[in-house]
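Notes continue from the previous slide.

Worked example: a multi-chain complex. Inputs as given:
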Amino acid sequence: MFLDFNFSSIPHIIFGAGRLGEIYEIIPKFGNNVLYVIGGSSLKKSGKWDEIRYEMQKRAINFSEISVEGEPTPALVDEAVEKFRNKKLDIIVGIGGGSVIDAGKAISAMIPKIDSIKNYLEGVGNKIHDGKKIPYIAVPTTSGTGSEATKNAVITEVGIEGFKKSLRHDNLIPNYAVIDPQLVISCPKSVSAPCGMDAFTQLLEAYVSPKANPITDALAKSGIKQMKDVIVPVCNEKASNITARAAMAYGSLLSGIILANVGLGIVHGFASSIGGLFNIPHGVVCGTLLANSTKMNIKRLEQLGAEGENGLLKYAIVGALITGKESFEDINVPHYCSVLLKTLEDWTKQLNIDRLSKYGITTTDIDDIIEKTSLKNNPIHLKIEDLSEILISRI
Amino acid sequence: MFLDFNFSSIPHIIFGAGRLGEIYEIIPKFGNNVLYVIGGSSLKKSGKWDEIRYEMQKRAINFSEISVEGEPTPALVDEAVEKFRNKKLDIIVGIGGGSVIDAGKAISAMIPKIDSIKNYLEGVGNKIHDGKKIPYIAVPTTSGTGSEATKNAVITEVGIEGFKKSLRHDNLIPNYAVIDPQLVISCPKSVSAPCGMDAFTQLLEAYVSPKANPITDALAKSGIKQMKDVIVPVCNEKASNITARAAMAYGSLLSGIILANVGLGIVHGFASSIGGLFNIPHGVVCGTLLANSTKMNIKRLEQLGAEGENGLLKYAIVGALITGKESFEDINVPHYCSVLLKTLEDWTKQLNIDRLSKYGITTTDIDDIIEKTSLKNNPIHLKIEDLSEILISRI
């Protein structure tokens, strides 16, 4: 049946250079007692943290802070919850990259609970979260995960028994997403490059998802159009260009909005399995596997014949969008699929995206990885040999 | 500065033929005591109301009902609130056209208050609503106002001291919008035609709004693409075609989402002033004035020179979209502006949209109307003579 879909709520979005300051107006709407979840040191080094402290003191708002380094673990969330459970927080503000935003999201959701977050993680625990939480404002300082607009927090435990799994509920979508591209300006290439590839992966995988709908399609194309010309320059000569940073922040935000609604494909299947087994940044897994995963999907769709046509058309439309084309009637599908693949390969090279081997992954790990890899909402079924071929190509 | 915008939250959307039944799963999430706000008789005649009653009884959910005929007045809302204030409602469900949805929205917002809604209406009272409300599910049975996705409820008092004003707060966006195109199938042409023109007006006015942003632009174009080929047939040979009805419902939903974010132009300025002075359906005001208001906007933008180019380009893009064109590079702006105007005129004729005189409006009313008309977010300033010319052309 034509037009049948769900679309979750999205945060109230405040987007624009210099608009971080609006959090000082939003916080008092919720109350007088705020917890900031922040990253390691970059916010402090930039002077922004001093500015926030000053504004809080000026307004006589009580505030606490907690620092998150690396991807959030169950232990980190449980400890923070234990510490702040009885502090009667009115609101939590997460300012940082995807890990910090997710940590804040998880803490806001777990404060009303009395047990460990492990019990509520998909595929790990057996409890279902009910969506009750402390209100939450997400302020991203990277343009990558789109976590400021998603309904899940990714929690990681690395090791043989490790996992990278989500706490998920529609109500965990942040109340506000405040996206200030000025906060991303100081982000180094080593972070901006994998983040950009992660965001683009999310736009592409959501666009070709079997669950895609006309709203997510319109937003995916809007995000791709903004990002396509700046994804590489923003890591090089345009690192300080606020217009380019804004375009990346926009693409990342939209990738979060749509992934929350239609899910993702095989690249994020790998990101989950590899991320649970190895200490490797999420964006690197996505960035390094995107080109060859897309190549495999296109190859298998081509072999499907008529059934694969719709999937191929969507890949071709992305290829066409990248070249600046907007009209997709009578589109040359094989040509624009090639354009897409060539572009993804070029970006991977130009952005110096690491290979998996840099993080200790070898061919002997492939079976373990594949065993834990879900195809999620990939547009086509891939066999074990296909997954193996993708991994080998990037070790 | 490039990319600077706000975007309000939207409801959790459930869209698809036959999906009304999902409200029975949603209601218990909020509680056991529900108020249905419904229209005059069509829901009862169709047998749907019996089905709802049956499902409520089967689930032992307490329910009450209130019927709304015509556009909601302050008296209607105040009386309903008085009656249900102490009933400890857990959730309200509004099922009907825009008037019913708005009535339910207003009742849900006023139950926590102790005084009249008049005190909280924009331009009428002097109190600011704080957004506290009973949770609300909106289920449209027409494809027109998009009220299922907006943050305002339009309240009307007709007469010399009359008004058509909004109760507005971000938090009044319904918690859920359940859009089931099957509910629109029985809608007669006399309702579907002005509703369709209202929805198209909202898509067009939001697209050319000075507050438009890339998200609302993407959604406006998506809505226009769905509606353009069915807006007339759905009132004639495709009245029972669920795919066509779904496309209209989709366009209407998106028009609501975007108008909530970027506002509307002169046609809705007139809808507000004329609707307060005369007893005339909202969709008729929009439908009858759309073509000539657009013509005036385009004429004045053309006279602006370079400053008007962006506005004209947007009108031309809509004209191009209507013809099925998707590529807007090197677009012939005057040609596609003409295409748009010709199409709007054709639709007005083919849909038999009434002239204003049918509702007792004469040239002697023009000054009163203009005095109460706001330009809202029109893309260009229009003079009193311009407004007068538009009105005269449709009396």
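Summary box: The two ends of chain B are 43 Å apart (CA to CA). Chain B touches chain A at residues 1-17, 19, 170, 181, 213-215, 217-219, 221-222, 226, 242-243, 246-247, 249-250, 254, 324-329 (CB under 8 Å).
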